Give the backbone structure.
Amino acid sequence: MKVVLFDIDGTLVLTGRAGLRAFLSAFGELFGITHPRETFSMAGRTDPWVLAELAAANGVPADAPELSRFRDVYLKHLDVEIEKPGPRKGLMPGVRPLLDTLAARDDVHLALLTGNYQRAAQLKLEYFDLWRYFRGGAFGDAAVDRNTLVPVAVASVAAAGGPAIAPADAVVVGDTPLDVACARTVGARAVAVATGSYDVASLGASGADVVLADLSDIEAALRALGIAD
């Protein structure tokens, strides 16, 4: 059975920058900073990594006790921000038809590999009615470094009653070179889609096995995933 691990932001959906707004609002609430400095891109990063970088950029010590409360405050803000309009907000092309196709097969197990906190992933995907497609996976709660998440994801799948596979036998679908890198770290298949912040050329240069403009061609997507029609 094929285990396919999907990234969320830029791969399945765009939230109209709800995550960024919620991050900055939560950080500002905790530390009394009206406009926190952001000197980095969130694309492909884990939420704990983003929090550490945001703290450093705003002079907050890494051991500040308020940081332990961040996730809960962030989730409170995300629950509000996800309802608001924003740029390019919506499902990426072809996502629902492809997930419907994959979910109907008995030789595919769908799971997540995302830098989002698990509850943040659920909030985002439930908003777009996608959470129901996935069983298990790896989330930003598990590690700061995304490159450690493929083994976490396949272990989660097995623990939930899914197939037990080696990390190298997984397929990772994402929209950034960091998604590609986390797959390559363990020898997994990397399928990149140019629906986020990176174009086809840059994703190809990052070492992806296959790069697609988007997921709208189901036959092409199945071939990319290594799934026989």
Summary: The beta strands are 2-6, 13-14, 90-91, 108-113, 137-138, 171-174, 189-193, 210-212. The longest helix spans residues 18-31. The mean pLDDT is 94. Residues 37 and 59 are 10 Å apart (CA to CA).
